[in-house]
Every structure is written in C-alpha cells, then in structure tokens.
Amino acid sequence: MILSRRALFAATTAFAWGSRAWAHQLIERSPRPQNYETPIEVFSQRITPTESFYIRSHFDTPTIDLEKWRLTVDGLEPGQLSLSVLLQMPHTTVEAVLQCAGNGRGMMRPRVPGVQWMRGAMGNATWRGVRLRDILARTGVGPEMKHLVVSGYDRPTLPATPPFVRSIPIARALDANTLVATHMNGHPIPLAHGGPARLVVPGWVGDDWVKWLERITPSPEEAKGFFFEKGYRFPDPPGAPGEPVPPERMHPMTTLNVKSVIARPRDGAVEPIGPCTVTGVAFSNTAIKMVEVSIDGTTWKRAKLESATSPYGFRVFEAEVKLKKPGRVRISARATDESGAVQPVDAVWNPSGYLHNAIDLVEIEVRQ
Hints:
Layout: H1 2-12, E1 27-30, E2 35-37, E3 70-73, E4 79-82, H2 83-88, E5 92-99, E6 122-131, H3 132-139, E7 147-152, E8 165-169, H4 170-173, E9 179-184, E10 187-188, E11 198-200, E12 213-219, H5 226-229, E13 233-235, E14 250-252, E15 259-264, E16 270-272, E17 274-283, E18 288-294, E19 301-302, E20 304-305, E21 315-323, E22 327-337, E23 360-367
Parallel strand pairs: 3-12, 16-23
Antiparallel strand pairs: 1-2, 3-4, 5-6, 6-9, 7-8, 7-12, 9-10, 9-11, 13-14, 15-17, 17-21, 18-19, 18-22, 20-21, 22-23
C-alpha cells in the first residue's frame, strides 16, 4: 500500500517535477526564481485549479528524491519523518486561500521594488495533510518554547544570500487547521507548489506557508535572519505614502486582510448597454459577511454570495448591474468580513508593497 502511494505521488506530479508544463496557463513575473501569476479570469470559481495556481519562489526549485526526503522535527525527542510515515499518519483536509504578501504590489503608488504582482498572486485550494500538532506530539515541546522555526529544502544561489527561514507562534502551530500538507486539490502537491510537503497556515499570509519542508524546530524566540527580522514586516502605525518607516515600527505579518477581486468583466472589456453580470471572489482571515458592487462609487448593491464551505476559503460573488448609456464605466467591489473589517478605498502604503487590499476596480467601455 505504501509503495503504491509513492508511485501515485510520482506519477501525478511528474508534470511539475522538473518540467514547466503549467507555465502556459500562468503570467510570468520571473522565470528564475519561478514567480508566476494566476490570470484574473480564473477567479470566477471557488477552487483554483492546480495548473492555474500562482507560484512563488525565493530561490531555485530544489531537486528532491521522494525516497530520500525526510522532515526533521526537533523537540524533547528529535526525530525524522519519511514521506511514507507521513502518509500513514491520520490526515485532515482544510480549504484555505494562499496569498503572497506582495499580491497587488504592482498597484502600489508610489511604486515599490519587488515582484510586480497584480491581482493574481493568490489562490484557493483544498489542502490535505497531517495536523502539525500531531507531529509535534511525537517529539514533544518543552513549556519554554513559544515559537516554531521552519525552513525548507530550497537554497540561495549565492553563499552570501541568507536562507529563507520563518517562525510562527506555538499557539498557531497547535491550531487544528495548521497542517503539514501532502495533497493539494485531491492530489499530491506538485514540486512547484512545495511538494512533497509544505506548511499550511489558514488565514495567514503566504510567507508562513513554507514550501519543501525540511526542518521544524521549537524555540523560545522568534526566527533570526533577514527573512524574518527585516523581510515580510508591516508598519504599525503606517506612515505617509513614500516616506521611509523606522525599523522599530515594523512587525512580522500574520493574518490576511479582507479583500475582493473582480474576475468578470475584465478591465478594458467592451460591454453592451443593458444588464451586466459582475463576478469575482472575496476572502479574509475569517468568514466573509458580504460583498457590494457599484458602478458609480457611491451607490452600492449587495452581491449574491455562493454558500460558504470554509471560513478560510474564497466566497464567489455575483451581482447584476445595469449599463444605461455608452461611455466609460468603473465597476467597484468591496468586501466586509464577519469581524466587521471593510475593504478600504486605499491600501496601506508600505515600503515593501505588502497586503494591498484597496477596493477593486475595473474600467469597461459601454457601447450601443
């Protein structure tokens, strides 16, 4: 049974293990390291197909032998897990949005450096794997340990480049929805998406969803190094757009913020006078309460929401608006979540372009 599972893993992920058969379905932001964006029209459905799911990498994709892969788990009794052992442990499934912290960076004004993602550095999938707390229970965690330091098999190309290391609080690691996932949308996770195992932290930004898991270490302190102490940090409180933010006002990002994205009609589309259906998705770090749509920026119409299947997943919305005369029309969408957070008119500007969630806008041309 174990061997057949391994064979299934290798067979179903062959297209991604060393090939780029998926690349034609994505928007290239950089070929090396691999950074590819999901086309906006994909976001008219709740589950993002794996072949259309965005890819975010800091370094080159590692070469991994499934038979030799091991996840090292430190603790009171350190140990290693092989893929076959991981697959035999009790599994659970969580539907959750994975979004790069820099999604929308290309829309920040003033502009900021980094991968110029527009709206498509996100996706919603079903993730199946072992609860992280079950793995930690095998090795034990001392009471003085407050954080979990996590790293993957990817390596910097240059020796002077710091490795990608993250940490999450132990409390979040022990949450029932935090997984070491081996499956994505019902199939083993492809290499491009972090297979054979990646961290899944529903409701949190993508930098904590470490790919190609190699080592998990309980620690009394947060992770050290560039990608935690300097990178992936957000200002609190924010400053004026374009102004530098002092390091003492920056803190590690955790949760996603409320957001909606319009998939149809597309920006620049030509639509006839009459009814027009606006479709897209919304998400947050908790359940979405409502989405509203406007064609004048003043009058808002509540959209119909697809039934919720997970508080961490996409909610597909749909609203019909009436296009009454020829000309340019701006269609807006804004979401509100169950906590009362509302998508803002303007995103919080920050030097790294993180967490862009301004009210989404598309401009179309209406013709007779």
